[in-house]
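Data availability (excerpt). The following record was deposited with the supplementary files.
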Amino acid sequence: MSWTLVADVIAGVCFLTGGLLALIAAIGVLRLPDLLSRMHAATKPQVLGLMLVLIGVAFRLREPEAVGILGLVVLFQLTTSPVANHMVGRASFRAGQVEADRLIVDELTEVLSENEEPRGAP
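Predicted structure:
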């Protein structure tokens, strides 16, 4: 058994697992009832699925330049996707699009009531 065969098997497993996680994220976006649940489904498994696919690509290509660029893609995806979804969630909460009865913990209502911010877009 050679190193290239092992790397190809690891790449295949990463591709399949990443694709499955992306499929689960898509099903979650379609099936979950409210905005915050859908955003959670769109962020968590999608980012992990993309990371696994890019790890599979790195094992398949085996070139240091490509692995470096793929690492940057993973880093940027890890920093931008959760922050963007957090900001969308806060904006939708301020706009009144979040069902308060579905929340278990609501720490944002008291913060917003203290600051007297306008609802909706500025």
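Summary of structural features: Residues 3-115 form one domain.
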